[in-house]
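Preliminary data (for renewal application), aspartic acid complex.
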Amino acid sequence: MKFGGTSMGSAERMRAAAEIISKETGKRPVCVVVSAMSKVTDLLLDTLRHAELGDRAAVDNNLRTLLERHIQACDELLSGSPSAVRLREPAGSAVRSLMAEFHRIANGMFMLSTCPPKSVDAAISIGERLSSVLLAHYLESAGIPAKSVNAAEVVVTDAVFGNASPQMGPTGEKCAQRLQPLLDEGVVPVVTGFNGATANGQPTTLGRGGSDFSAAILAASLDAGELWIWTDVDGIMSADPRLVENVAVLDELTYAEAAELAYNGAKVLHPRTLAPLVEKKIPVWSKNSFAPDKPGTRIVDRLSGPPGVRAVTSMSNVALISMEPANSIVSGTRLMARALDALALANVEILVFTSSSYRQVFCFLIRKQDVPVALEAIESNLSLELNHGYLKPVEVDENVGLLAVVGEGMRGTPGLAGRVFTAVSRERINIIAIAQGSSELTIGIIVRRAGLERAVRAVHDEYGLGIATAHEAVNVEA
Ligand code: ADP
Ligand code: ASP
Ligand code: MG
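Predicted structure:
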């Protein structure tokens, strides 16, 4: 079971999580994975940025806020019964010593005026380590044997700081040594989400929102029967509920559909979550910790219902990069190969790629935050071609957004895909690029940023994905 930031956001939410855990531990062994308390990772990162800039007052202010929030949760959780009060002192001192560890790293950045990714990773997993200590102590106080575990001891990763990938073999061995004995003894391991360490022990993190991925890595390594992801909405929905009013909760999705949704911007799952689970076919549930009795969404290998369009998703913090040879002497394909090679070396992920064979133009969509690194990589790899005028200057358009429609079997159904274009053009929103074809179950289109939300609503309506309004329901019955 993985509990997200909101589900760990206060003493009250941690109590609710503990109740969910205690119901299941009676039936079978449970391994828990936790996020940091909501907004804590942002605050830790903000503190490190202020440290790098030498703003001592801002650093101290953030440190105070972080300590107070966790100590307050600790005091609220561990009060009342004698067993709770007995654990308050050790839990409080664990919180203080983790905060001192963070303070030391921030001080180093302050003195050196730099914020290297390696040290950032060592520092920001403190958020998850704090919440794991709090929940484990609370479970103990409630009579459920539990142990806080730092994932750096079990999740072995490569050394891509800030976006590390797991090494499943060594991770499986560590889980067998460290977590399995706890489960066998009836102890609930409360493992930190988001972090890991390289084989030689350097702390790493799996990317923002990575606790979902941590939970999937551990579920696969422990051969779990199921993975339950507890969040703050009723499950995976037909669109982002912050953009569309009448969203419907999906009963069921395939791994492929859920992965496409996550990769195309649905924040409810970290994009890499499903990959470790597919091979072992471990079913996943996305459920609401605020309403645990609601069914939630089940992610499985095969659907029991008919295929079709399931959901619309979007990404707004993206940029479209276009490249074009200046004359026919240079091969467009060769340029593509060089550009892609440069991006791969710089660890820049391409979200969409399209090309035209006649003019040899190609364009690709990347995250806005990756633009500086991507341009530097391309311009240094292709400096000769650029300087000698074989390649037109690289164009960057940040005024765009990506919309994706996802559903198993969509491509095989005549007319189904085309309705995306009808809906978007009816709203008079200009389509800049189209990426169909690369995936069986997704159509991606790039539109002007200003029209993105409107396009999402129009496409959601076009396919009738939302719940029927009271008015529509009456009409249907009539
Ligand atoms: P957690 O902290 O539990 O990991 P997140 O904030 O990362 O939670 O993800 C849950 C949020 O994802 C929801 O509150 C919702 O606003 C957003 N979201 C975006 N798209 C979707 C979608 N298609 N279905 C459900 N939630 C979505
Ligand atoms: N706490 C981390 C983040 O905010 C990981 C997570 O919550 O999934 O990115
Ligand atoms: Mg999340």
